[in-house]
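Sequence in, structure out. First:
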Amino acid sequence: MSSHDPTVRPEDHSHDTLRRGSYREVLRIGEILRKETIGGLLLVAAALIAIIWANSPLADSYFALRDYEIGYEPWHLRLSLGKWAADGLLAIFFFLVGLELKREFVAGDLREFRKAMVPVAAAVGGVVVPALIYVAFNASDPETAGGWAIPTATDIAFAVAVLAIIGSHLPTALRLFLLTLAVVDDLLAITIIAVFYSEDVSAQPLLLALVPLAVFTFLAQRFPRFFGLHAWAAWVILLPLGLVVWALVHEAGIHATVAGVLLGFAVPVLRSQASGGPAAGHGLAEEFEHRFRPISAGFAVPVFAFFSAGVTVGGWDGLTSALSAPVTLGIVAGLVLGKPIGIVGATWLLTKVTHARLDPSFKWIDLVGVALLAGIGFTVSLLIAELSFTPGSLPGDHAKVAILTASVLAALLATLILRARNRHYRDVEAEESADADHDGIPDVYEEDEGPERVGPVQVDPDHETHGNEHR
């Protein structure tokens, strides 16, 4: 019998795990994933070019380019191009991470404890288990034990690129789970980088960084009132302040990507806008995301991947030696086995403790497929590898080989599972897109939320904020 039959009493799915979420959230997440798909494809292409170049007769020119130094020495900003990509360009990526985290905490699933506990628990499990697996392989070697955080990351751009390549019809609920999981994962990663990979921290520049950060925060919060939403004002006034914060944090000895996250947190988000999708209006967070996401996905992350993924394998013997090294085994096992074990295990444990249940549309094998996608660490894993080991060292090269190998393995295994379930996903997709009353809103969302909760959001044309909407 049809689920839309009025004689059927609807079931209460409020305690289901992997629910599809609100229609507004679906629209917003769908737009983000479309942009990240393009960036992911560029990222994969950049990494392939780097690997081929670094193992070609022209390898010396690749490393000469990567190690070429530019910048202003008196400010300690004379860095190699590879370092500029890691410390500078990735700050743009982490700025968007900060924005997305702010959105989730203000208006997304992380605002409600009941909705947040599943992706948060899954992300924590997906960090802890891979780290423990890595340590099990490397505990006896102090030189390599410091790379324990390398297999804890998730690269959402690479993951959605895999989905695009394999043509998976992954349902909304699984896509939402993957992105929310990746957002929490990024928060854990940046915390790990700030706490465990910051050496010789200098207090003076760190304290000085608080001044432009405070001014940036104040102006960002008052931006609509002072400047309206003129793009030139954001670039002319806020961007230089952000660059000063970045430079001072870099000088303090803390990885400069932390500055990106802090600046992202400082940008205000409207609750109505954060959950609203295309009809929700336009605020400062949307302005920055609109401007910076193409730069991040189309340039910053691919360039970082290009400079970081290049490693000389050294032929078959070199590859065999690298694949058998404890660093490689720890990273590959951590990403390919540890991630799905941690994510699925934490989710299963939570369902037992809270008496929640998996949404009837899905099976545990679907969660395994998504968890394998989360095992594609790549971008952030490469960053942590560079922070863990001396550039050009044998453990550092082994780590890069391991990250590339694990990302490919995780992608292939996820492809096998998700492609096998594609027929079922098409059925779910068809149900989620059905619009019998032709009002532009799929029927399942009207049933879940009621028409009054999925309609367009009205935003003050003067961009003023009222009550507790502005955060």
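Second:
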Amino acid sequence: MMQWRNLLSAQRLGHRGAEPVTPARNPFQKDWDRVVFCSAFRRLQDKTQVHSLPESDYVRNRLTHSLEVSSVGRSLGAQVGEVVVAREGAALGEAWGGISAAEFGHIVAAACLGHDIGNPPFGHFGEATVQHWFRDGEGARYLEDLGAAEAGDLCNFEGNAQGFRVLTRLQNWRDAGGLRLTCATLATFMKYPFGSSAADPARRKFGYFQAEAGQFREIVGAVGLAELRPGVYARHPLTHLVEAADDICYSVVDIEDGYKLGRITFEEAEARLKALLPMLPPRYSEIADQPWRIAYLRAKAIGALIDQAVMVFLEREQDILAGRFRGDLLQHTAAAPHLAEIAAFSRSRIFETRERFQTEVMGGEILITLLSAFAAAHFALEQQGSEAGLAPRHRALLRLMPLRPDAAAPRYHWLLSVTDFVSGMTDSYALKQFQRLRGLQ
């Protein structure tokens, strides 16, 4: 059984001891600040959420989505924390000092803020393109000499694992790597607490690359995640709230965005948002403007789903702490059938458009070209042993990398550096690099 006094560890990754938890500015608030000010987070402003390069600047991107998820996550965490602190306040105070309901909210908010930080350009299509390039494309030839776990990391390239790598290694690399977030926040961030070799073959989701296995073990030890079977751990309980915040936001705001883009009617959007409410608020009839009506219903629907998710969490807390809870919180709410209908409706009416498919074709060409070019240059360096004698194009490509490549670097590590570079690009920057490689700019 996992214990809250361990799960709320304020110890920072790579540090000994923990910062004091004070009301003015606690370590988990600092985690939120560190993510906000890092360059990988800023780049989310130009990364596809659902609609690539949308015709309306109202529609969400990865940055605005992450901020909204963080806001919802803070509410979820604080409501859960209020109950837990009322019950275990003395024990938590003895372990970490001034733990209050707000600290639960800060942990969840910080983890939510980074939940998409590892996603490549062009959304989940970009992630699938990287996977296919390694499995069945040109990248497959580079995996022949790798171990099974290392090859699995690349064949099943995962935005969640890349996000963990960004937070724990790639940002602020001069300071021994990573943002040095608290173990509580990093464990809450990790939706899949296992490596690629332990992933479900059907889903292939996992939480860390082999290169970050040491950081993962350190976090597990600090917060006391329960080991369910060798190499597979139970989620941090607050991770369920991160997932709920993400699900709430994209389910509800997809309807609002679809209406704003003109892909669904006011009546279609209104009916689906109303279905998420236990009752229609009396003030709704006072709003005449249709866009404001949808915005009002969106806000009320989010509030209703927050309350339902918190109720399920508290009802199933013991199962969650024991690692027995299955599924996600929203699946166990009264709103579950309505959310399932919204998901199916959104896929058919909002997402599957000709414009989206055209953008995906373009994004696939861009990513394949970039991966092939930079991997070929690194492979040539590996074979040559130095830059001397390399083709001029390969030398130029290597000098575009953020860090000077090392000819002695193991193949697994230079392949990761290539995926780091390409997946870290924004949609626009990836397009620009593609055009320059093709001599079009």
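Remark: The chain is about 60% helix and 0% strand.
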